Amino acid sequence: MILLMLAAAGDCGVMRVPVAAGAVVAAEDVERGACPDRPVPAKLRYDARRLLAVARAALVRGEELGRVYVPPRTAVSAGDRITMVSRIGHVAVSREMTALQSADANQRFFVRDGDGRVVLAPRLSSGARR
């Protein structure tokens, strides 16, 4: 597994909120703090498929992470289940899909339907949320 990239010298991460083992750790969950004098064991792993940082073990508020880069959370991550809705006039058709890649609010992304077909999803609607 690929380790997280090092941040700039002097910038170390400190957990702002508690996170369960295996949960996604986003940039907003971490604040900058002073770097400890001792080495800090890797507490995060980088999930290259979903482009996310994941907690190796449960992390508590104030826990030192050392020098790490934590990517910002995306609107949709690879593997997320989404509902794609198509509207024409008064008719709306919705289908459950699985995102095949991460995407932000104004990006298009590929999804797979229940029959295994891969299609390009339109941009996320303004009502989309995690």
Can you walk through the features of this model?
The protein is mostly beta strands and 130 residues long. The protein has strands spanning 12-15, 24-25, 30-33, 44-47, 52-55, 64-66, 81-88, 91-99, 109-113, 118-121. Strands 7-8-9-10 form a four-stranded antiparallel β-sheet, with no helix packed on it. The radius of gyration is 18 Å and the shape is elongated. The chain starts with 11 loop residues before the first strand and ends in a 9-residue tail after the last strand. The model is unreliable at 1-8 (pLDDT under 50).
Can you summarize this structure?
The chain is mostly beta strands. 0% of the residues lie in helices and 36% in strands.
SSE layout and pairing:
Blueprint: E1 12-15, E2 24-25, E3 30-33, E4 44-47, E5 52-55, E6 64-66, E7 81-88, E8 91-99, E9 109-113, E10 118-121
Antiparallel strand pairs: 1-3, 1-6, 2-5, 4-5, 7-8, 8-9, 9-10
